[in-house]
Amino acid sequence: MAAIKPASFYPSLMGTLTFNVHTGVSSTEAVATQDLGTANVEFRHYIDHAFLAGLEGGQEMLASLTTPRPPCTELWGTKRMSGNERVVGMLSQPLHVSFKATRADRMIRKSDMYLADVLVIDSLPVPLHVSVQGLEATGAFTSEQEREELYRAASDFSRKPTKELFPEQFHDHPYWGGPGGYGPNTSVLGNIATVGMGGVENLRQELLSARSPDVSTPRVCAACLERSVFCEFSQPKPLPHAMALLARPSSGNAAEPPPPCADALIAIAVQ
Asked: Using one digit for the tens of pLDDT, what is the confidence trace for 144-197?
């Protein structure tokens, strides 16, 4: 029997993301951490138990939690000295959120997304943590513009994670250094450093194989993988190549996408 491994909280220190969290009867804004560009392999998303319980409709969602996939009982990476955080369970249905893209503090786009495999954590340092790796693995993006706006926000250092961005109830969490601290504390390494490069592929495959049944394997054409470009056959876009979107102009004069490739499709793990 395989050992039960803890889930990992290793957010990016670049930008945070703003979402509306929908329960079916209410909609609440939440600032979320994310994992773009981190040396950590994790496709699941996290929501704080107390935050969810306080939402109208949240108690009903908590009443139907399921067993996490892959199985896990703890979350590491929050710097809690006495051990890891407790995983309460996993949401039985994808979490409906709306990503709010802004420019100069003005909202320019609102995109609906569904977060698959959301773990409920007993004491998370933030209301919500969204895995960009998980969004790519599940094909959550419905357009290139949607992906581009989220990547831009995730890379905006003016919105880097500090405790002042989050509700006061999270400020005393050990992740932020406790009372008077600002954090985040960066004393731990991502799980890529822990398992070593030789174990990264096994970790990716373990997470991918345990995902919801409707999750498709990321695919990319061989030529695109070699040239770091896109064609119509690459669905969804692997994580490193999507970084190239950050360099694209946001106006209408963006370069035309490369022509379709003739190469056969190959299945790859999300990078």
From this structure: 888 888 999 999 988 889 999 999 999 988 888 755 566 676 666 566 556 655
Using one digit for the tens of pLDDT, what is the confidence trace for 33-51?
Answer: 999 988 888 899 999 999 9
Place of tokens 């981190």: 38
**Which of left, alpha, beta for 146 (phi over 0: left; psi -120 to 50: alpha)?**
alpha
Structure confidence by residue, pLDDT tens digits, 86-95: 999 999 999 9
Asked if 171 and 248 touch (Cβ cutoff 8 Å), the reply is: no
151 burial class (0-12, 13-18, 19+ CB within 10 angstroms)? buried
Bridge partners of residue 97, in order along the sequence: 21, 113
In angstroms, the CA 213 to CA 1 distance is: 22
Is there a cis peptide before residue 68, judged by omega within 30 degrees of 0?
no
Rounded Cα distance between 152 and 162, Å, is 18
User: CA–CA separation, 27 vs 97, rounded Å?
Assistant: 9
Q: How many CA atoms lie within 13 A of 92 on its CB side?
A: 9
255: Cβ contacts below 8 Å, ≥ 6 apart: 248
User: Distance between CA 163 and CA 68 in Å, rounded?
Assistant: 28
This model's pTM is above 0.85: no
Within the chain, strands assigned E span: 7-8, 17-22, 27-34, 45-48, 74-76, 85-90, 95-103, 106-115, 118-121, 128-130, 219-221, 265-267
Q: Per residue in 114-149, pLDDT tens?
A: 999 999 999 999 999 999 988 988 888 888 888 888
Structure tokens at 112: 């609906």
